[in-house]
Structures are given as C-alpha cells and as structure tokens.
Amino acid sequence: xxxxxxxxxxxxxxxxxxxxxxxxxxxxxxxxxxxxxxxxxxxxxxxxxxxxxxxxxxxxxxxxxxxxxxxxxxxxxxxxxxxxxxxxxxxxxxxxxxxxxxxxxxxxxxxxxxxxxxxxxxxxxxxxxxxxxxxxxxxxxxxxxxxxxxxxxxxxxxxxxxxxxxxxxxxxxxxxxxxxxxxxxxxxxxxxxxxxxxxxxxxxxxxxxxxxxxxxxxxxxxxxxxxxxxxxxxxxxxxxxxxxxxxxxxxxxxxxxxxxxxxxxxxxxxxxxxxxxx
Length: 278
Fold this sequence. Notes:
- There is one protein chain.
- It is built from 12 helices and 10 strands.
- The chain has a 6-stranded antiparallel β-sheet with strand order 1-2-9-4-7-10, sandwiched between helices.
- The chain has helices spanning 91-96, 100-103, 111-127, 131-148, 160-167, 174-181, 185-196, 200-217, 223-227, 234-245, 249-253, 258-271, and strands spanning 2-6, 16-24, 28-32, 37-44, 47-50, 56-59, 62-65, 72-76, 80-87, 107-109.
- Helix content is 46%, strand content 20%.
- The chain folds into 2 domains: 2-148, Jelly Rolls, CATH 2.60.120; 160-271, Homeodomain-like (Arc Repressor Mutant, subunit A, Orthogonal Bundle), CATH 1.10.10.60.
- The protein is α+β, with helices and mostly antiparallel strands.
C-alpha cells in the first residue's frame, strides 16, 4: 500500500484540510478510525466500505462519506487507486450544503450535491498524471462550489471554542465548554452537530481516543500515559480505543492497523497534523 498527501490551495484550507492519494497492488482489508468527512474519487479498482452502521457500500465512482463516529473498515481490490479529500468541519455547509449531522456515517454520491461541476472535475482527476495535477483539479472544483453556493445567513458561525475544547488534553467538562462558547446548552449541542456531526460529549469521547492513538504512534508504550486521566481503568480504555480506532491499543502498537499508522505518520511528516486535529 502507498499513501501520499498534498496541501490544497491556501485560500481553500479553512474548508479542505488535505488531499491524498492511496494505492494498493494487492487486495487489502484495513480498519479505519473514526474521522472527519472525506470525498473519495475511485481512479481505478474499487472495493467495499463496511460502514459504522453495519452496512456495505461498493465503491466504484466518486462519493462523500460524512464524519464517522466509530471505526469502520475498507476492503480494496488489487490495483485500487483513490484520490481523497479531507473536509474540515467548517466546510460542511459551505462546500456540501448540508450539516455534518445529516452526512454523519453516510455515503453520498458526489454528483448528488455538486452536479455537472463534479462530473467534469472527476474526469479531470481520473485523467491526471500526478497527485499535483489531481490537486489542481480539486482546487478548481472547490473554488467553483464556493463561488456559486449562496451564503447560509442563518448558520451560526464556526465554533472555534468547541474545537479548542475537543483538542484540550485535560478533558474539560461540558459546563466549561458552555462558558467558552457563551451560548445555551441547547445551542452548544446544535452547533456541535451542525459542524462536527454529534453532541459535544460524544465528540469528546472520539477525540480522546484519537489523541491516545497519536501518543502511541509517537512511541508511548505505557497504556496509562497513552490514555490520559479520563478512563476508569484499562478495560474502559481498551473498549473506547477499539470503538473509535478499530483495534485494541496492543494491536495498534503491533501495527495491525497498518493504514491508520501510515496515515498518522504521513500527516505528522507532511502536514504537521496528528489524527486528533481539524
């Protein structure tokens, strides 16, 4: 398997985190951790996504997968090549015209919300000879969408305080978040679902596990140090880690989640971004 990352154009980075190219010469079955939303264009080959809700989706074209709230699995045919795009929380309404909650754990045909612009861009990506050329086509695609999509006047502004709260290693409580956002508990919940796809408390569980995975990839071998202070015991940590990462901490340390660890390594080296980031 091979994985390569590329940065989008500077003016798109509030909405698009990164582009990536994945290829495998051999059939592969890999767990994937709970993650932010992605657009994926199948350049050749194909496979099956085993989604968190237990469904199976054959992947043969171009699709959007919303933020996933638990680990899932990718089954790829030999010769599969994929161009992918990480959609940042701020990009859901602006690029996709929907809330993250509406797309959560869903696989949606790309042309269903981007129409002819998507079809011509998909052709460009498939005819490109390098990741850099695919990125240029993707830049053009997202710039066109942003120029045409009407501003959502009723949408609340992006919750920077929520992002800070989710990434804080001290596991701050919900009352602290409400104070940071300076809105009601109900409004805090609504904004979290609009941009991130779930309630703050559920999101905190997800990002707590992602931070632990980052620590393990960085070389931490002690489960207590990797877990932090928010878990009751080792059993609780193992259960939560498996829910959101797809393998146990021991399996993760043993590199039985090859693609996830490769994703972490590439993000850290190329993008200076861990799994638990936006």
